[in-house]
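In this supplementary section we document a worked example of the pipeline. Step one takes a protein sequence of length 183 as its only input; no multiple sequence alignment statistics are reported here. Step two produces a three-dimensional model, which step three serialises into structure tokens for compact storage. The input and output of this example are shown verbatim.
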Amino acid sequence: MRAVQRQLLAKGIPQEFERRGGVAYRKRFWSAERSESRFTWQKFFFTNDVEEALSAVRKLDVNATVSDSGLIEFQEVLPATWEHPTTGEQLWFNGVHTNHESYYKEAEHIDTSDGSPMTTAYADGTVISNETLAEIRSTMWKSSVACSLQTGDVVVVDNMLVSHGRMGWEAGHERKMLLTHFS
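The serialised model returned by step three reads:
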């Protein structure tokens, strides 16, 4: 992510997000009672009580809504860059490109017949251009580093430095992923 930050800074992308107030994540979660989508508020908020889910959502967005069909819609605004808690360096750390509706529309394994479950925009409401998204995606991909693992290998990663970094793996290869948070 250090390389991504440098390259995007040179193109003015983090500066534009900061100028526009950060990233707006617009999210839509359907009710499991009406949708087989994996993007349900029950799965996201770990509850079957719509009022409990809405209460959690309203901590993120006081203007969150729930429709008669149980669709919860809300927006969360976050910065595009974050300070690393140990090193203090600013890093590009967000889901601008992976939470944008263009990702979901291209992902064959995600049903978007009722619309995209998420999208991103600048926090001021301005649409992120296809060119900017392409530049972000390209920079992320070009900065990726693959490591070949063997049975018994253990990998410990700093999530802020690898930005949720992982690539696909072949089915049939057993793996175990353990997550922990350090403060």
